[in-house]
Amino acid sequence: MTATTVPTVLTARALLLDMDGTLVNSDAVVERCWRRWSDRHGLDADEVMKVVHGRQGYASMALLLPDRPMEHNHADNARMLAEETADLDGVVPVPGALDFLASLAGLPHALVTSADLGLATARMHAAGLALPDIRVTAESVGASKPDPEGFLKGAAELGVDPADCIVFEDSAAGIAAGRAAGMRVVGVGPRADFHDPDVVVRDLTQVRVEAIDGDGGAGLRLYVG
């Protein structure tokens, strides 16, 4: 693996959590929907799948069809979101996600996802996971990951300096967004392994969280690996 996987202890004031690939395994749905989209547009589906993880749909479409007007991408993305929200077959929690989220009760954390609220709600529910009280979804931002806007907004909502946040991400776009926000990144799963997070874990069974109190105020300690 490219990042350290040895037992690591990190401290922070807040955690910012991606959803797809990090808390929820929705790869089966993403593959089905984007491969159909690739066929409709005569694109190599394997190449398309290298682009789409972590980004909002319209941003992926803009990369894949650079000459198409952006308003067409936004309209197509709306159709894609509806299609993905209706297809929950195979959506399951990432191992350890249920216990991990339960351990964050009362601790500062937020969901920061490229999904809109409808899709996030549907997938978290299908995986048996509760939505965090604070969430930054597609409707909340003007720019998709790898732009750091979502993570910076999540930190602001929690009232925490970006440097005191740790991001949990699985994709190249998400890891780049966390880095651009000035945050440390825990990579989750095999996709993360290729994109230089600070530390990478197989899944969330390898993460333990505890609350701490120190001179700088309340915070949390992560045991990773």
Could you characterize the architecture of this molecule?
The structure is a single chain. The chain is α/β, with parallel strands linked by helices and 225 residues long. The chain has helices at residues 27-40, 45-52, 57-64, 70-86, 97-103, 117-126, 149-158, 172-180; strands spanning 8-12, 14-17, 24-25, 92-93, 109-112, 135-136, 165-169, 184-188, 199-201, 207-214, 217-224. The protein has a 6-stranded parallel sheet. Strands 1-11-10 form a 3-stranded antiparallel sheet, with no helix packed on it. Helix 8 (172-180) links the parallel strand 7 (165-169) and strand 8 (184-188). Helix 1 packs across helix 2 (45-52), helix 3 (57-64) crosses helix 4 and helix 4 runs parallel beside helix 6.
Briefly summarize what is shown.
With 225 residues, the protein is an alpha/beta fold. It is built from 8 helices and 11 strands.
Total number of beta strands: 11
Provide the residue-averaged pLDDT: 93
Oligomer: single chain
What would you call the structural class?
A: alpha/beta
> Treating each run of at least 4 consecutive H or I residues as one helix, how many helices?
8
List the main descriptive attributes of the protein structure presented here:
six-stranded parallel sheet; three-stranded antiparallel sheet; 225 residues; single chain; alpha/beta
Helix/strand layout:
Blueprint: E1 8-12, E2 14-17, E3 24-25, H1 27-40, H2 45-52, H3 57-64, H4 70-86, E4 92-93, H5 97-103, E5 109-112, H6 117-126, E6 135-136, H7 149-158, E7 165-169, H8 172-180, E8 184-188, E9 199-201, E10 207-214, E11 217-224
Parallel strand pairs: 2-5, 2-7, 5-6, 7-8, 8-9
Antiparallel strand pairs: 1-11, 3-4, 10-11
